[in-house]
Q: What sequence folds into this?
């Protein structure tokens, strides 16, 4: 008799403990709305951070080339080459130990490579091998477009004192990174310029002196 009397109450408790179709639909709708808002924001955040890392990528290369020249009392250079996958620029740092009165030349094979040290490296086969960095992790060029100044330049040469070798014609002085129009509010225009003293500086190429954020002349 006890079981028959309380059966309806038990069924009500069990039905109340479950999830109805309407409640499930509302929950899924809320999740869908949250994802539709959150995923684009997350994607934009990732893209913005990748774009910000691009200037660091190039600044690190310029700084490494200067450090190697000073540390090894040698000539050094950084060479930028297009990355075919994303339109950004890979870089490679080489060193050279010129003979007295003789300039380093590509034709003599005096520069280091990623496979072998430079000719006349004091450490012989254990000497410095070129450092190559792939720009494949940077944003596509339709997101962040690189441009070189002056146009057509690709290399900066450093003396053993760490200064830019001004005897080299058409030397690279700056790489500029412009965001796509649709991302201009989130990603600022930035450039990495190299002064004659060999120092790499991040700057805003759209500004001019006396603004401290402007690129050096």
A:
């Amino acid at each position: 008799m006890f079981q028959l009397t309380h059966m309806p109450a038990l069924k009500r408790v069990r039905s109340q403990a479950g999830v109805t179709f309407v409640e499930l639909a509302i929950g899924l709708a809320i999740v869908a709305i949250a994802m539709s808002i959150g995923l684009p924001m997350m994607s934009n955040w990732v893209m913005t951070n990748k774009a910000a890392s691009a200037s660091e990528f190039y600044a690190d290369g310029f700084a490494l080339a200067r450090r190697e020249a000073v540390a090894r009392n040698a000539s050094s250079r950084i060479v930028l080459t297009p990355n075919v996958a994303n339109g950004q620029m890979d870089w490679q740092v080489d060193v050279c130990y010129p003979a007295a009165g003789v300039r380093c030349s590509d034709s003599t094979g005096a520069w280091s490579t990623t496979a072998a040290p430079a000719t006349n490296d004091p450490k012989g086969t254990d000497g410095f091998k070129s450092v190559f960095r792939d720009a494949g992790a940077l944003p596509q060029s339709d997101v962040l477009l690189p441009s070189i100044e002056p146009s057509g330049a690709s290399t900066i040469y450093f003396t053993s004192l760490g200064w830019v070798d001004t005897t080299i014609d058409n030397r690279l002085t700056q790489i500029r990174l412009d965001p796509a129009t649709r991302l201009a509010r989130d990603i600022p225009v930035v450039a990495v310029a190299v002064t004659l003293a060999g120092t790499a500086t991040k700057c805003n190429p759209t500004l001019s002196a006396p603004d401290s954020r402007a690129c050096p002349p």
